[in-house]
Design a protein that fits this description.
There is one protein chain. This protein is of the alpha/beta class and 406 residues long. It has two domains: 146 residues, Rossmann fold; 218 residues, Rossmann fold (3-Layer(aba) Sandwich). The chain is built from 16 helices and 16 strands. The strands form five sheets. It has a six-stranded mixed β-sheet, with helices on both faces. A four-stranded parallel β-sheet has the order 9-8-7-10, with helices on both faces. Strand 13 and strand 14 form a beta hairpin. Helix 5 packs across helix 10. The chain is globular.
């Protein structure tokens, strides 16, 4: 399929370029010292990603430890409640071991760390799902693990903090700035700059300097590859639309990778939060402009000084002032439509899916559920496949405290 002069038959082989660019987005804007470390990671990954031994080991881990493939569920009662005849389906990444899609790339990154002879993995986390997944991977491979997490998110995500500690990770509280995901990334990068000879920084999304947007997409593409095959088996056709939430964008890029070359409408859903005012949302692709942060060029939300702006979302995993460079590229191409869902719509979807389908979704995933419902209400026929990127156990105390039981 050719779309805006880009050949999606060969897209995944051609993007990013060798120096890590998706069009004008991506790259590696970091210190010369860290450039050396990134080149080491890139060389190691490019060496082993085609290795039969590495691929066989990763497949065995996914099958025997992660519980892959995760299923697709037909959301029959939710579909019936909409009443348009449009059928909703969910790719159940909440059933992946540790409760979210994050383990897909964490096991790959930790396996890479072992191959490189590293002793420690370092990461940031917002909602805690990436932190839990990396702590799980570190325990599996016998690696030390440091997780940097903003104080605000630590308070919101107490169950995941406890899980990380039980798994043996050291959770480092970050108290600078807004004390959320951006500051956690800042702190993790600083730690990695001190320890890169013995550690590897396992970025939690399709962002950061090259090669991480490539690596994380590759590891997460199992979601879209499975989903496409499963949906065809279930229905005999492709879905009319695919929907996923977007913060940094790892779950979305993994899902989208399976459908970019198909005649399928693709939607990325950003958090509108409390409204359109700067500081009340984290919808960078909707309201941002081009800018560089955390070692990569993308579309970001900026303050009056051109610095990363304060952001907010009810979902800790989505409150980041930029998005992965590949999402910025697909946004400019128009191949993926990026839209927004606010906090109230998100929490309504959280309870609706729980009550009608017996599935408690993560607040992050609830953005995609809410958008899938709205989209189905505008369609006269067809099907919508939602990437249910994580389960909501981690969010229940926070939701009950702030919103009560609806």
């Amino acid at each position: 399929m050719i779309f805006n002069n880009v050949n999606f038959d060969t897209y995944l082989k051609n993007y990013p370029t060798e120096d890590g660019f998706f069009g004008k987005y991506g790259g590696s804007y970091i210190s010369p010292e860290l450039q050396v470390a990134m080149k080491e990671i890139s060389h190691a990954y490019n060496t082993i990603c085609k290795s039969r031994k590495f691929i066989d080991e990763l497949r065995r881990i996914r099958r025997e430890f992660q519980g892959r493939p995760t299923p697709i569920s037909h959301l029959q009662r939710l579909s019936d409640s909409i009443g348009t005849g449009v059928q909703l389906y969910a790719k159940r990444e909440d059933l992946n071991h540790s409760g979210a899609h994050k383990l897909n790339h964490c096991m790959g990154e930790a396996l890479l760390a072992k191959y490189m002879g590293k002793k420690k993995v370092i990461a940031e986390t917002g909602a805690g799902q990436h932190g839990v997944a990396l702590a799980t991977a570190a325990a599996y491979f016998g690696l030390e693990c440091d997780i940097y997490m903003g104080k605000v998110d630590i308070e919101k995500q107490a169950p995941n903090v406890a899980r990380m500690k039980i798994l043996g990770a050291r959770v480092v509280e970050v108290t600078e700035g807004l004390q959320t995901l951006k500051e956690a990334v800042d702190a993790a990068f600083a730690a990695y700059a001190r320890e890169y000879k013995d550690a590897i920084y396992c970025i939690g999304s399709v962002l950061g300097p090259h090669p991480f947007p490539l690596m994380v997409r590759d590891f997460q593409s199992v979601v879209g590859i499975e989903a496409r095959e499963q949906f065809m088996d279930m229905t005999g056709e492709l879905p009319d639309a695919v929907v996923a939430c977007v913060g940094g964008g790892s779950n979305a890029m993994g899902m989208f990778a399976g459908f970019l070359n198909d005649p399928v409408d693709i939607y990325g859903v950003e958090p509108l939060g409390r409204g359109t005012a700067l500081g009340d949302h984290a919808a960078s692709l909707k309201y941002g402009t081009e800018g560089i942060m955390h070692g990569f060029n993308s579309i970001m939300l900026k303050d009056e000084n051109g610095e990363p702006a304060p952001v907010y979302s009810v979902a800790s995993g989505l409150d980041y002032p930029s998005s992965g460079p590949e999402h910025a590229f697909l946004h400019d191409l128009g191949r993926v439509k990026y839209d927004v869902i606010n906090d109230d719509e998100t929490i309504d979807a959280f309870f609706t899916l729980s009550r009608l389908e017996g599935i408690i979704p993560a607040i992050e995933s609830s953005h995609a559920v809410a958008y899938g419902i709205k989209l189905a209400q505008t369609m006269k026929k067809g099907s919508v496949l939602i990437n249910l990127s994580g389960r909501g156990d981690k969010d229940m105390d926070y939701v009950i405290e702030k919103y009560g039981i609806r």
